[in-house]
TrEMBL record:
This is HTH-type transcriptional regulator BetI. Gene3D superfamilies: Tetracycline Repressor, domain 2. PROSITE patterns: HTH_TETR_2 (PS50977). Keywords: DNA-binding, Repressor, Transcription, Transcription regulation. Pathway: Amine and polyamine biosynthesis; betaine biosynthesis via choline pathway [regulation]. Residues 26-45 bind DNA. SUPFAM superfamilies: Homeodomain-like, Tetracyclin repressor-like, C-terminal domain.
Length: 192
């Protein structure tokens, strides 16, 4: 029951951030969204900072699980690379609610050591996954630089989606990343 209730509160936090923003997402609003009392929130989380950290961790876990599930099916170097990319901009993570939450958390990272630590882990995982996937495909290219650019492109697509500027959907975001990789590495990754 504890894991179910924690997930319910985290989902309510993401929905609240999407609807009213980070600053207006009070514990009372989040608990009402989850259909529970504020005391229930305090039973499962020490305070709002604890709930917010758990929410950011959940968002990172969702990305990790999306990548891992795709990597299990990948058989070729290109499929392993696309597993990392699709896991970071796939339909299950690249949602309006998820995008709003990520932008809100990114804005808070400079002021929160707890959130900054979690964000560094998430960013590091993306970079390491990209380096590992790109290494067999980058003969003669700087794998670190390409991984950094792909990660920045993914982050930029999330930012644009959150700001609703040239709002890319997952398919558009995927096409932009594939276009870059095809041109940079002389690959022929299908756009599907």
């Amino acid at each position: 029951m504890e894991e179910i209730r924690r997930r319910q509160l985290i989902d309510a936090t993401i929905a609240s951030i999407h609807e009213v923003g980070f600053a207006e997402s009070s514990l009372s609003r989040i608990s009402a969204k989850a259909g529970v009392s504020t005391s229930i929130v305090h039973h499962y989380f020490e305070d709002k900072a604890d709930l917010l950290e758990a929410t950011l961790r959940r968002l990172g876990t969702n990305l990790r699980l999306a990548v891992v599930s795709r990597q299990r099916a990948a058989r070729t170097p290109v499929e392993r690379l696309m597993a990392v990319i699709d896991g970071n901009i796939g339909a299950e993570v690249f949602t309006p609610e998820g995008v709003s939450a990520w932008l809100a958390f990114w804005a808070q990272v400079p002021n929160s050591a707890r959130l900054a630590r979690v964000q560094r882990i998430i960013i590091g995982r993306l970079h390491d996954n990209l380096v590992d996937a790109l290494r067999p495909l980058t003969r003669g290219h700087d794998v670190q630089a390409i991984a950094t650019l792909v990660a920045l492109l993914i982050d930029g697509l999330w930012l644009r989606a959150a700001l609703k500027q040239d709002t890319p959907n997952g398919a558009t975001a995927r096409r932009l990343v594939i276009d870059y990789l095809n041109s940079k590495l002389n690959l022929n990754i299908a756009l599907e």
